[in-house]
Amino acid sequence: MKSFFFFLFTADLSSPALDPKTAHPKLEISPDKKQVFWRCHPVGDGLTPEPYDSQYSVLAQESFTDGQHYWEVIVQEKPFWMIGVTTGLVTEIKPPPQNSSSLKVNNASWCIYHGDGQYLACHDTQEKQLSVAKRVRKLGILANIQTGELSFYDADAMTLLHTFRMQCTEPLYPMFNPCIDMNGINRQPLTLFSIKDPWN
């Protein structure tokens, strides 16, 4: 297996900004577009949210169609979160409908879900439990469009968590789901980390 540093050396180091136009109404985006929170006072729509519904997501403004791209997300001690990528024409989501397939776990999305200490690799209807020795506080994502590989890393320990094999014919968008906050236990945001060249 090639080293983590080799992949970083060959990849485009990204620091995506969140796209508020694609955010579910129950999510709040920070002014600098680097953090996503579950709203303390959700926009009323008459619906009761499921605890960890995958539709409560926001996409990045930037998409990828070729090359290698790497970005990181700070999750710290959040007990619940889902992070990954999805494909599709997300510009049509104005505002995001409750059942938008672009923002769900389906056959056009690949995600890592963390739920109270357990990690799942999710794609379509498939889930695979991952063996993770140490709690991940910063997640690294490497998308290699040419080879069709999407890899997730513990960015602090520089260890591989899981690699998806995928076929990508449409733009690939980073996707972020902070999951709902229940009684203040999952209030922390997902934060996009500003990556600097590790060799400078």
Based on CA atoms alone, the radius of gyration comes out at: 16 Å
Note the overall shape. globular
Summing up helix and strand content along with how strands pair, one would put the structural category as mainly beta
- Regions with pLDDT < 50 over 5+ consecutive residues? 48-53, 90-103
Largest sheet: 8 strands, mixed
Mean pLDDT: 81
State the oligomer.
Answer: single chain
Number of strands: 14
Distance between the termini: 25 Å
Helix-residue proportion: under 10%
Compact overview of the structure:
By secondary structure, the protein is mainly β. Helix content is 4%, strand content 36%.
Question: Which terms would index this structure?
Answer:
mainly beta; 8-stranded mixed β-sheet; 14 strands; single chain; 1 helix; 36% strand
Helix/strand layout:
Blueprint: H1 4-10, E1 12-13, E2 27-29, E3 35-38, E4 58-59, E5 68-74, E6 80-87, E7 109-115, E8 118-123, E9 126-130, E10 138-144, E11 149-154, E12 159-165, E13 172-177, E14 190-192
Parallel strand pairs: 1-5
Antiparallel strand pairs: 2-3, 3-14, 4-13, 5-10, 5-14, 6-7, 6-13, 7-8, 8-9, 10-11, 11-12
Please tell me about this protein's structure.
The strands form 2 sheets. Strands 1, 2, 3, 5, 10, 11, 12 and 14 form an 8-stranded mixed beta sheet that branches. Residues 48-53 and 90-103 have low confidence and may be disordered. The chain is mainly β and 200 residues long. Helices cover 4% and strands 36% of the residues. A hairpin with a 4-residue loop joins strand 10 (138-144) and strand 11 (149-154). It contains 1 helix and 14 strands; from the N terminus they run H-E-E-E-E-E-E-E-E-E-E-E-E-E-E. The two termini are 25 Å apart.
